[in-house]
Amino acid sequence: MRIAHLVSHAALNGVATSSRTLIQAQLNAGHQVLLVHSRNSWIERQAFTGPIDMLASDLATTPAEIRRVGYAIRDWGHEVVHAHGSRGNKHAMVYRCAAGTPIVMTAHTRQPQLPWAFAHEVIAPSAQTADYYLSRLLVRRKHMHVVPHMFDIRSVAPVSHPLRAAARASLGLRPEAFVIGSVGDICPRKNQLDMVTVLARLVAAGIDAELLLIGLFADTAREDLWGAALRDPLVAGRVHLVGERNDGVAMMGAMDAYLCTSRMEEGPIATLEAMATELPVLTVDVGYSSELIVDGESGHLFGHGDVDAMAGTAATLAGDATLRGAIGAAARRAVARLEPPAIVSRIEQVYRLAAARARQKPAQK
Q: pLDDT by residue (tens digit) across 197-206?
């Protein structure tokens, strides 16, 4: 199959990494791919193996750029166009309306935009994501498909003691501390302020804990709350904001437990990466987490904002390295269920549906 992907995200994030994994898996399965990517983006710098063509575009919604990209896709000889990101979705909407192009969109986030109504098929990484679009009548149920993000377990190695020691040394973390943390933009949606509260609970309980946050600080609207939280004597000097890094997965190895306190997620990819490294994950019930994690066995699930329960579980893990290891090993086995071949076949079926519906003529009035 000849598949054109429109990936409008330039930065290294869950959209980019999940799209990269999907494209490589499709190449491995024998498909041909045209990747339309943002200029100077993370995904264009990745090495792919297989018959891939690449086209740089800012995916601006101007007539000139829509025509340029659209004609390139047409001349390449696509069978289906798969859009990732709002600018990609807008291009795809025009291609369907102008040329009847078979269009698939992946709902990497929740944005109530018009293009969703023009996709032949929509892929949601979790039932929570699907319910959002169905409840707002942006997508009809027969066009919605819940397909979790795939994950190549071979791409991430379990964290060993030497790797953990090296990661901590590079970040300036003490070897003896119990380190909790996360990877992702620091923002209201991901709600890392709750992690600071968990840290304070741990320190108050006598645990020598620290918090590692890897990601761009984007919570500028709540800088006063962050300032007050970081001035708390319990956590002063124990919160490490190391910024955005391209080696986030490797630096994740510095942690003893991974936390997710997000108000909203669709995957999320960072949680899968943490589970693959054999970190015990403590997460609110968000995205695909509850469908992947068996509470108490391959991770721990909590209600939104339940920092007391999360802190209590973290305290138990802090005192039991054997338990952390057992949960981490079970987490890696759970992620292995998302191996690419099984997920690729499900997405192929969605493509075939999109192509079939694109060939259907509108009903006569």
A: 999 999 999 9
